[in-house]
Amino acid sequence: MSSVKPQTEQVPELWIMGVAPDQGRDEIIRDYLAAAGYQTRLAAVDQIGTERPLGIVLDISPHSLDGWGLLLQIKSNPACRNIPVLPVFLSEKGKVGGVFPVAGFFTLPLDDHHLSERLAVYGLTEEVETWDLQALVVSRSGEEKLSKLLEAVGFEVVKGYTGKEALALVSLHPKYLAFSNLMLPDMSAFELLEKFRLFPYSHNMPVFVLLKDELKEGEKKAMSREIAHLVSKKQLTQEEFLKYLRNRA
C-alpha cells in the first residue's frame, strides 16, 4: 500500500527590514516571532517584486538601515503599499524596546481611490450610514482634501491642529478613527499613538499616519531620536511583544 506524502503546510512569513545582516540584531525578534509560529527572513524592498510577505516588521530606531526611508519606499509604491508594516524599535544589541501598532500609513498627496478602498477593506465604512461617526484629523494644515473625502464617505470630521488638542478632543467624546501627520507641532504621531492608548475613548481607536512624499535626512534622524525617547528602558518580553502582533491579526 503506497503512502501519500502530506502536503507541506505553508507557514506565514514575516519579513524583517531595516536590520543589517550578519550583526545579530535580528535574533531576539526572530525568536519572538518563531514562538508565535511565524517564519521570518531579513529582506529588502526589491524582493517584493517576486515574493510577497504576510507583513513587514520594520526597525525605525537610530540603529536601523534607513528605516524611515524604507517605510516611505514601501508606502509610496502601489505594488507593495498594502502590505502591513509594524514599526519597532530595536536597540543596538537587538533588544525590542518599543512597538508602534498604527492601523496603516498613507502618503501625501493622497490617492483618493486608494484611501477609500483601504477604509472599505478594513471594514471602517460599514457603519457610517447607520451611526453618526466622527473621524479625527490631526494636522497643522487641516488636510482639507482628506477631510472632504472622509465627509463624502459619511464621517463627521473633527480637527485637531496639535497633539495636545487631539488628546483633549478624544477625552471628551469617542472618535471612530483618526489620521495624523507624522510630525505635529508638539509631538510625533507615534507619541500621540502612545498617549491615545491611555484614554478609554481612544484606547482601541484605529490611527492612520500620513507621510510626506519625501523625508530629508535631518527629518529621519529627528524622528529616530523622537522614537528613542518613547521606548521603554527595559526589553519587552516575548509575551509583551506578541500582544501587539495578535492585535493586528
UniProtKB/TrEMBL annotation:
Q: Which UniProt keywords apply?
A: Phosphoprotein
Q: Give the matching SUPFAM superfamilies.
A: CheY-like
One GO term of the biological process aspect:
phosphorelay signal transduction system
Keyword Secreted found: no
Q: Where in the numbering of this chain does the Response regulatory domain appear?
A: 132-249
> Gene3D superfamilies, alphabetically?
3.40.50.2300
- The organism's superkingdom is given as Bacteria
Record has Phosphoprotein as a keyword: yes
Q: What name does the UniProt record give this protein? A: Response regulator receiver domain-containing protein
